[in-house]
Amino acid sequence: MNTTIYDVAREAGVSMATVSRVVNGNPNVKPATRKKVLDAIEGLGYRPNAVARGLASKKTTTVGVIIPDISSIFFAELARGIEDIATMYKYNIILCNSDQNKEKELHLINTMLEKQVDGILFMGGEITEDHAETFKRSSVPVVLAATLDENREMPSVNIDYHQAAFDAVAELIRSGSENVGMVSGPLEDPVNGFQKFSGYKKACEEIGNGFDENLVAVGDYSYDSGLEAAQQLMELDKAPSAIFAATDEVALGVIHGLQDKGWNVPEDVQVVGFDNTRLAQMVRPTLTTVVQPMYDIGAVSMRLLTKYMNKEDVEDEVVVLPHLLENRNSTSF
Amino acid sequence: MNTTIYDVAREAGVSMATVSRVVNGNPNVKPATRKKVLDAIEGLGYRPNAVARGLASKKTTTVGVIIPDISSIFFAELARGIEDIATMYKYNIILCNSDQNKEKELHLINTMLEKQVDGILFMGGEITEDHAETFKRSSVPVVLAATLDENREMPSVNIDYHQAAFDAVAELIRSGSENVGMVSGPLEDPVNGFQKFSGYKKACEEIGNGFDENLVAVGDYSYDSGLEAAQQLMELDKAPSAIFAATDEVALGVIHGLQDKGWNVPEDVQVVGFDNTRLAQMVRPTLTTVVQPMYDIGAVSMRLLTKYMNKEDVEDEVVVLPHLLENRNSTSF
DNA sequence: GTGAAAGCGCTAACAC
DNA sequence: GTGTTAGCGCTTTCAC
Predict the structure, then answer these.
(1) For residue A161, how many C-alpha atoms fall within 13 Å in the half-sphere facing its CB?
(2) Which positions fall inside the HTH lacI-type domain (chains A, B) (predicted)?
(3) Which of A135, B61, B141, B298 is most buried, taking the most CB atoms under 10 A from its CB?
(4) Is the per-residue pLDDT at A252 higher than 80?
(5) What pTM was computed for the model?
């Protein structure tokens, strides 16, 4: 049998209400009484039961985190930001992988709600009607991290992916690369697919020689898909002199795909990645990439969530963090 | 107000015990009654409260996971194995980063126990007396993953780090490399420091020309420390013709440190890493490395934990998974 | 400043 | 098969 608040009360010769006050730091306790209680707690090795507390107080100090894949270097970094801030505000995290699978996501949201989490941090691909519906029915606040809600009606933390992609490609064009190719994520993916692609396309149209769909290869975010895409793009009659990759991992694949076929980076082909994961510095030449502040997105979104959970006023429901282009050696500008 | 089991009972015209039976899949319910209850649940949008259930049943179907750093590519992969198996057995995971800080670790264990987790999966550095003490006092099972307990009295899942290091270095020596250098983790770290170092040392003594401490650089697991260590080792009069790195990330640093100074891998210097993270294939030349089955270690340790939580019989408390050397292009054997 | 007592929403005997 | 009832360990009024 574990020792309960009642055991402590008896040992200290007070009521359980008083023990509860001491445990919760309520100031309305005489110092002498407090000491008696503290001694009893110490002596009995009492440890409060958070489940009972959760039932009585309707607060669990736990938040649910739904993430596509914790083994992805990108999301792992985000998760670290989330967890650090959660810890800072005394919350714990229930972490689940969704693989961006809609059924799983919906199921997980329900599981977290059953577990009475005080809030949910959601990372995923598309926010469908079903998602929106489920979130709206949720009794606790939900914040999106690195995830777009097209209707912009949910709190979220992102960078401007479209603009970031545009900026990167524009820089490539201005530096003299006539045809810029792209290795995109699946176009259904709002962030890694659509947004980045549309930024790329806009830059080609407005600053470059126009958009040519042959210059776009669609990969699956993996290193290998970058490897293949690069070689495929270089076989084009009008082979690109620069390639914009949707993620750093893909960009590394691109660089190596190029090098394996004897092309030089950046002399023959410039390469730009996206995210600025640690990978960007672990390749030769080092990778020029769009900086997406992953840790910060995690941290800011968790902070935002704590505000909602505390019912504080929130000025910016939709926060857009700044991005920038980190210039390294895979480009010649 | 959320709808409770009592509301469902009234709506369906049965007792709450019956509703509980239906919700928990107890077969002792007449199909007609079951249907009435299910309809009521559906109609009211009832969602069971896991906290109340946890309090009443003394089971939370939640396990605590203490991990040094989720943003590390190694631990992230482990975590994924853990979470997948947890999901399979209907457990959720509370994930916390410890940074291998002893105070944090001890504190986290307590927090998880307060939250009434059904078990704990621990990853860390050293298991001190205090750790052992705390674990022993724990009312729930604890399993170590990729973490050594020198007294071998706790359930754990690992590979044989000493032997794996020995094997890698022996192969290097047999392939003709006279002096093999090493970039180790801090020697206080039982796994990445001591075990791997001692395997290296033994191979030098038994198969090579003996051990020379000048050939060992101590880094901090980072890419940059590999970069520096490589350049430092190559300045030795007796520069190594092969370098064994304690982790893949360090090995990438070593390769690039070498290349940046004009050395060729593997012609001038062979390089072997450890872990077989995805990084090993994202470098040129691709990295020969010791395969540590990270996902499997996570998965197996979680499976082991479920057995303890179910009070099943466990034959192997200390499991040692096989390792092997994955031969790629950073070596010439 | 402290205590008594009523829940929180559910499970688990036990009775019928 | 189904209902009754007593907790699980705590928070939270409300008295005193």
Answers:
(1) 25
(2) 3-57
(3) B298
(4) yes
(5) 0.96
SS3 B128: coil
Flag residues 34-53 of B with CB < 7 Å from strand D. Answer: 34, 52
| C-alpha to C-alpha distance for B138 and B143, rounded to whole angstroms | 12
Mean pLDDT over residues A280-286, rounded? 97
- Contact flag, residue B55 CB and nucleic strand D, below 7 A: yes
**Which domains are seen in chain B, by residue range?**
5-48 (1.10.260.40), 62-158+294-321 (3.40.50.2300), 161-291 (3.40.50.2300)
Distance, in angstroms, between A59 CA and closest chain B CA?
Answer: 10
> What amino acid occupies position B221?
Y
Judge whether A261 and A227 are in contact, CB under 8 Å. no
Write out the two tokens for B73.
């590519």
Question: Is A87's CB within 8 Å of B96's CB?
Answer: yes
- Band (B152; pLDDT cuts 50, 70, 90): confident
Q: Do A50 and B97 touch (CB under 8 A)?
A: no
**Residue in B110, B260, B279 closest to A47 by CB:** B110
User: What is the distance in angstroms between the Cα of A323 and the nearest Cα belonging to chain B?
Assistant: 21
pLDDT tens digits, residue range A201-244? 999 999 999 999 999 999 998 999 999 999 999 999 999 999 99
